[in-house]
Amino acid sequence: MILETLAAVFVLVAVAAGTTLVARALLRGPVQSAIRCGCCGAPADSLTSFTCQVCGHDVRDVGLRAAVARSPAARFYKAIAVTLVVMLLAPMSVELLRGIVPQTRYSHASQSMYPSGFGGFEAIELDCKMAESGGEVSGRMIADLSMPTGRMHSMEIAIPTRKCWTIDEYGQRREREMFSELVLREWMKEAGVDDGDKAVSDGISQLHQEMQHVMSESDGPAPRGMRPSFSGGSSNSSSTQPAQWLRPVVMMFWAAFWLIALAWTMRDRALPPATVEAAA
Question: What are the pLDDT digits (tens) for 157-180?
Fold first, then answer.
């Protein structure tokens, strides 16, 4: 997210700078080259006769030229050409890099679990998002516990470290030990769930197994018999995409390339002096 925001800001700044650069170039008058030999481009000031001292041709045969170079219209068309080339190459480069840069597999699992045959809480909602790239898995699970009083308590678990935090009904965030059944029991007890009842205690054990299963790499359903004390539904989805950094980096590269190309094409360059070697 930070990289995407940085890329968007970078592109906007580059577009503003490029637009200013083109506008200033269009406001400049046309640049004319000095009168030169029509064959080799030697300055006419160096002529002492009708024969060019650089190439040896008679200027009455090859002529003299004083062509208008880099007029405002020429600068405008060059800017359009540079922009079109970048707009064509940028998406092509993304597609090319898709086959080179390692792909990232994203998965999203969510479950709504309602206790059956015991009380203590209304429901618990699980939402888990994970990304796998190069054999490394990272992600986060959010568990929202709804109480009969209408209060909401949440637990956030980092994947794969299992480091967890809890958020109470007042929004107070507290860091916990690594996620375990004991930590889950303590959190639910603090929320007001009485695990002294055997059905409730068994339900918490099954809830812990379910959460471990969701945070695992498996996309399949929970093993049979894992959640007999709960009812509800679940959904799973997954997709394979390029690494999230690819598009922002490509955007910044082509924005910088476009700006540099514009600066190079918009500048007024003096024609190099002709030499005997060049004429030969």
Answer: 999 899 999 998 888 999 998 999
